[in-house]
Write a structure and sequence with these properties.
The protein is α+β, with helices and mostly antiparallel strands. It is about 25% helix and about 25% strand. The chain has 3 helices and 4 strands, in the order E-E-E-H-E-H-H. A 4-stranded mixed beta sheet has the order 1-2-3-4, covered by helices on one side. The longest helix is centred in the middle third of the chain and has 13 residues. The N and C termini lie far apart (about 50 Å).
């Protein structure tokens, strides 16, 4: 994504220059997707929130929406909603081929 000009890698450093939080966002004209967010165990409480906010500010002119890429924990839901995020159901479909079904269909 970075090589193709549709990604943003961002970091947040403290006053001593130590990296405290990192984020990676991939985007297109329709939407930006927060694919990675991590912070040091010793990072200040708001380090991840500050980095996400700055990342949103940077990609907003480039895209139409910002997608936090889900999660099902109540803590994540509270964190995302603090940015004004709305919870949107996301359907997931998987394909499976049970052996018994194949045997039944070939009878």
């Amino acid at each position: 994504a970075l090589e193709h000009g549709c990604g943003l890698a961002a970091g947040l450093r403290d006053t001593s220059g130590s990296l405290q939080a990192v984020a990676f966002v991939a985007y297109d004209p329709a939407c930006a997707y927060l694919l990675l967010l991590a912070h040091a165990a010793t990072a200040p409480r708001n380090a991840a929130a500050v980095l996400v906010w700055r990342t949103i500010e940077r990609v907003t002119p480039l895209t139409g929406a910002f997608d936090f890429e889900g999660g099902n924990s109540p803590g994540l839901a509270r964190f995302y909603s603090s940015f004004g995020a709305d919870e949107v159901p996301c359907l997931q479909f998987t394909r499976c081929r049970p052996r018994w079904l194949g045997k039944c269909l070939h009878l």
